[in-house]
Amino acid sequence: MDEQRKQLQDWISQSGNIVFFGGAGVSTESGIPDFRSVDGLYHQQYQYPPETILSHTFFEENPEEFFRFYRNKMLFPHAKPNAAHLKLAELEQAGKLRAVVTQNIDGLHQAAGSATVYELHGSVHRNYCMKCHQFYDLDFMMKGEGVPRCPVCGGTIKPDVVLYEESLDQETIEAAVLAISRADMLIIGGTSLAVYPAAGLIRYYRGKKLTLINKSPTPYDREADLVINAPIGEVLGAIQV
């Protein structure tokens, strides 16, 4: 493991155009459960499975139940950035990291200080009225009960997160693809690489420093140039910038 971490340090020191691609495992160290971990949403007892509740159809047909689940299980307003978030922000400020591509919706990369963040699945911090498009923040969503209504026009306020059955934002995908295709180093962390189409984006990387940092094996381990099976915060936190 020491040799692997030294290799990671050397590559980061040599690189000037790093892109980080991350998933739920990046935020578990901040106390936000991973959907597929033992303590995650997929193991919670609820009237419907999470995939059903977090679908566009369910949102439209059962908004009361959707928002009950959403507030209880998806919002973590007191979560703080961990060592991984902070180190990535530091690498960006040092001119080494060019972009963060994330599957997370918690906004912790921005809270840590990262400026260029492509949120493939949206953000809980952005919420819009479906009628008049008025913007509302996370605090507004946390305060209410039931279906959130726009004080301006009475319309339903929808979180700017990508639900099952919905497409990813095309501009965000294109920006992420461009960043990954230009990178001289791609670090993938805290993701099982099982969620598509997001996981497919790493196919656009053309370099020779594909690094996977994850506690468990992924389907792409054989294709990586470096694999470290350890918590992402522990590994990145030890990096010298």
Estimate the mean pLDDT confidence: 92
Q: Determine the fraction of residues in helical runs and give it as a percent range.
A: 25-40%
Q: Within the CATH hierarchy, at the fold level, what is the topology of the domain at 1-32 and 80-121 and 167-241?
A: Rossmann fold
Radius of gyration: 18 Å
Structural class given helices, strands, pairing? alpha/beta
What is the general shape?
elongated
List the uncertain runs. Answer: none
Q: How does the major sheet shape up?
A: 6 strands, parallel
Output the CATH homologous superfamily of the domain at 1-32 and 80-121 and 167-241. TPP-binding domain
Strand content: 15-25%
- Give the second-level CATH assignment, the architecture of the domain at 1-32 and 80-121 and 167-241: 3-Layer(aba) Sandwich
Compute the number of helices. Answer: 10
The CATH class designation of the domain at 1-32 and 80-121 and 167-241 is: Alpha Beta
Q: What strand order characterises the main sheet?
A: 3-2-1-7-8-9
Find the count of extended strands (DSSP E, 2+ residues).
9
The run of helices and strands is: HEHHHHHEHEEEHEHEEEH
Q: Give the end-to-end Cα distance, rounded to a whole number of Å.
A: 20 Å
List its traits:
six-stranded parallel beta sheet; alpha/beta; three-stranded antiparallel beta sheet; Rossmann fold
